[in-house]
């Protein structure tokens, strides 16, 4: 079978492990041929491709990024964008397309599926917020990077009697903040799911210091929201600029700096910010992500040969299963309530005996 493949959206540790697994199983077990479209959907729009074979995937398992490169190109925004993609697939005699991406990339895959293209999806995002799957690959690596950063920030916070604010990625969901915050022993964890009261954050820190602690760690997701008018946007996420990308997203970032300023103002404790940014997305995937990415790749190529089109490989419990793409893109998966309970359980309590946050 002749199979096309692309990686779309923000890059993610483990993309190369997925590509390698698909090509190896496809070549060794099914005698497939592969075409790699470059830079996400742009590769189909502009007919940019490379042949993918066993030699092209040699040695890529531990490498971050993606040998196919990526972009946030959205063909559905152009009048004839989807038709152009279909024409490129036909030109390359591609029978099935495997799209590796988050909700944006997979929403285009779904549109092509509705137009009769045979597609299979694989969930990718460090944000871990795609519906229908328990974990996306790349998330574990991002959490480990963030946790190590929090550990390092801990010792300098302790040495200087400071409050340290660590801003992590997480546009609509606070998975990275919640996992790394719990793993790193943060004192306050702020996530997009729960708009926060800056007064309560300050009070939590004051209370902690009043009982003898002289430093605090705050972990905040970039998409977390003040419940009151503190940042540039009332009640909304803090943005770097108001321009929108092809999928209608603003560029987030900067909440850590504003939060640090507000904490220092309210508590008089010296406060600093660290923004982890793209460091969370770069570099080699963890062993967990290499295994998960490999399992997704194997799951997807098997789905291709079982004719499970318009579907995505998903992790349910500890099994890779096939779910409709439509289900995966229907909802943005929020942080589980029980995980929020865990974080609340380890936070300092306010004087009214109610947990401060989230
Ligand atoms: O991949 C998702 C994500 O990490 C979001 O958390 C973040 O807002 C976005 O990517 C930033 O991506 P970029 O700066 O590469 O467009």
Keywords:
358 residues, alpha/beta, Rossmann fold, seven-stranded mixed beta sheet, 38% helix, disordered C terminus
How would you describe what is shown here?
With 358 residues, the chain is of the alpha/beta class. It folds into two domains: 2-137 and 285-317, Rossmann fold (3-Layer(aba) Sandwich), CATH 3.40.50.450; 140-281 and 336-346, Phosphofructokinase domain (Rossmann fold). It is 38% helix and 19% strand. A seven-stranded mixed beta sheet has the order 3-2-1-4-5-12-13, sandwiched between helices. The chain has a four-stranded parallel beta sheet with strand order 7-8-6-11, with helices on both faces. Helix 7 links the parallel strand 7 and strand 8 (216-221). Helix 1 (15-30) crosses helix 9 (287-306). The structure holds 6-O-phosphono-beta-D-fructofuranose. Residues 10, 125-127, 169-171, 222, 252 line the site of 6-O-phosphono-beta-D-fructofuranose (F6P).
Brief rundown of the structure:
With 358 residues, the protein is of the alpha/beta class.
């Amino acid at each position: 079978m002749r199979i096309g493949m692309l990686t779309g959206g923000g890059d993610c540790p483990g993309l190369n492990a997925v590509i390698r697994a698909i090509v190896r199983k496809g070549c060794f077990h099914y005698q497939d041929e592969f075409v790699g479209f470059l830079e996400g959907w742009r590769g189909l729009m502009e007919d940019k491709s490379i042949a993918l074979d066993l030699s092209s995937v040699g040695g890529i398992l531990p490498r971050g990024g993606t040998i196919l490169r990526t972009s946030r190109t959205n063909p559905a925004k152009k009048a004839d964008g989807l038709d152009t993609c279909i024409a490129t697939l036909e030109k390359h005699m591609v029978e099935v397309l495997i799209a590796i991406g988050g909700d944006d990339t997979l929403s285009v895959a779904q549109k092509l599926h509705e137009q009769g293209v045979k597609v299979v999806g694989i969930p990718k995002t460090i944000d871990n917020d795609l519906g229908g799957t328990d974990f996306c690959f790349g998330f574990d690596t991002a959490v480990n990077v963030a946790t190590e950063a929090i550990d390092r920030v801990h010792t300098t916070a302790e040495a200087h009697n400071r409050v340290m604010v660590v801003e992590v990625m997480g546009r609509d969901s606070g998975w990275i903040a919640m996992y790394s915050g719990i793993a790193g022993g943060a004192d306050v964890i702020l996530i997009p799911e729960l708009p926060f009261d800056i007064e309560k954050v300050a009070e939590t820190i004051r209370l902690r210091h009043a009982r003898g602690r002289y430093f605090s760690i705050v972990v905040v997701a970039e998409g977390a929201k003040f419940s009151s008018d503190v940042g540039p946007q009332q009640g909304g996420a803090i943005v770097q600029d108001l321009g929108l990308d092809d999928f209608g997203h603003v560029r987030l970032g900067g909440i850590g700096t504003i939060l640090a300023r507000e904490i220092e103002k309210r508590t008089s404790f010296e406060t600093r910010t660290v923004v982890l940014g793209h460091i969370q997305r770069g570099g080699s995937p963890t062993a967990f992500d290499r295994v998960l990415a490999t399992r997704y790749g194997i799951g997807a190529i098997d789905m291709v040969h079982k004719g499970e089109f318009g579907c995505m490989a998903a992790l349910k419990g500890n099994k890779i299963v096939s779910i409709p793409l439509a289900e995966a893109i229907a909802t943005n998966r929020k942080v589980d309530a029980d995980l929020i309970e865990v974080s609340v359980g380890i936070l300092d309590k306010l004087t009214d005996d109610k947990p401060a946050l989230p």
